[in-house]
Amino acid sequence: MIKYWFFPLAIITTSYACVLISPYYFILPYVWILILVPVLEIFINKLNKTNNELLYSKGHDASLIIVFPLLFLLLILALLKINYLNLTYYESLFIGLGTGIAGGAVGITAAHELIHRKSKKMKAIGVALLAICFYSHFRIEHIYGHHIHVATKNDPATARKGENFYKFLIRCVVISYFSAWKIERGILSKKNLSFFSFKNRMIHYTIFNVLLFLSCFAVAKLNGLIFILTHSAISIILLEVVEYIQHYGLVRERSNNDTLEKYNHSHSWNSRHSIADWSTFNLGLHAEHHSISNKPYPLLSHEKKIREMPVNYPTMILMALIPPIWFKVIDKKI
To answer: What is the pLDDT of residues 10-44, one digit of tens each?
Structure first.
């Protein structure tokens, strides 16, 4: 269990260095994730426990819950520093770059686990983590959209074969947002509630987004906005590049009678690389997650799946950012 504490907290700690020591330390979390983790993976075996060896405890849940207060405090300290030390536009940008990677790599991955839980309190913490990145609507679209339509053209979060990450990013972010509104409207309609009812969660999220935006401006003026928007952009980009690599090019086929193929493990790219999974609450064990979405992360199977990523998450992300390399390596594996 200690590994699921140490590695996420290591990322958050590097982001704290950017805020508490110097904005120019913003590079630290990138060095940790994109350089040190892939190097360390060379010397560590992939996850290989049998299902009977997997354990789940309250400590695993605590490792998720602690993420929100740590990241919320990080944002508060960043805004106060920007304001009281009169940091420049560039320094505010650098702090956003440094904190955003913790928001995406740890905050949103913890949120992803939490919004799938049955507990309302756990779900609320997950939504709060998404909210500080202006991405609360992910909670609706991901649960009621992505998990139903994965590996089909109806899923904005499934990348098409031959679609580069940058086109996918724009398509996914825009369509997912409007999809969340559409899904919420359908949910309200089934309950005979008005679209403009205060039960509409998208209205709640929009109000919070506005309040967060105004609060950052009130505390640190334009520099506060530069910081929070940069922080959110990095967090969202990191989320979406992960979504890109998780289902790229995979399609559920239709039979002759137009019946859609049921989801199976061939419709997700799985990754059993140890440090990357310890850092992201087993986000790489994605194939089984789609089969049993509310299964706690420490219990996800370590067994080899039909489609395994050829390299660890950080290296896959770097490849996705360079489309010619991505297509050359991944397309032939589909």
So the answer is: 999 999 999 999 999 999 999 999 999 999 999 99
CA atoms of 25 and 164, how far apart (whole Å): 31
Q: Are 191 and 290 in contact (CB under 8 A)?
A: no
Helices marked H in the chain — which ranges?
A: 3-20, 27-31, 37-41, 58-65, 67-84, 89-102, 109-115, 120-131, 138-141, 147-149, 165-190, 201-247, 274-279, 286-291, 313-320, 323-330
Among residues 142, 151, 165, 330, which one has the least CA distance to residue 240?
Answer: 165
Instruction: Say how far apart CA 282 and CA 299 lie, in whole Å.
Output: 9
Cα distance between residue 157 and residue 36, in whole Å: 28
Distance, CA of 301 to CA of 105 (rounded, Å): 21
Question: Could you tell me if 265 and 247 are in contact, meaning their C-beta atoms sit under 8 angstroms apart?
Answer: no
Distance CA 7, CA 106 (A): 9
C-alpha distances (whole Å) from 288 to each of 244, 279, 282, 291, 315 are 18, 18, 11, 5, 22
pLDDT bucket at 255, cuts 50 / 70 / 90: confident
Is-contact 87 311, C-beta < 8 A? no
3-state secondary structure 73-100: HHHHHHHHHHHHCCCCHHHHHHHHHHHH
> Per residue in 122-162, pLDDT tens?
999 999 999 999 999 999 999 999 999 999 999 999 999 99
The number of folded domains in the chain is 1
The string of pLDDT tens digits covering residues 112-131 is 999 999 999 999 999 999 99
CB-CB contact of 157 with 135 (8 Å):
no
- Whether residue 322 contacts residue 283, with contact meaning beta carbons closer than 8 Å, is answered with no
Q: Could you give the CA distance from residue 261 to residue 253 in angstroms, rounded to a whole number? A: 5
Whether residue 287 contacts residue 268, with contact meaning beta carbons closer than 8 Å, is answered with yes
Given CA atoms 55, 61, 67, 69 in this order, what sign does their dihedral have? negative
Distance (Å, whole) CA 294 – CA 86: 45
Give me the domain span that covers residue 48: 3-333
Residue 244: closest CA among 313, 197, 145: 313
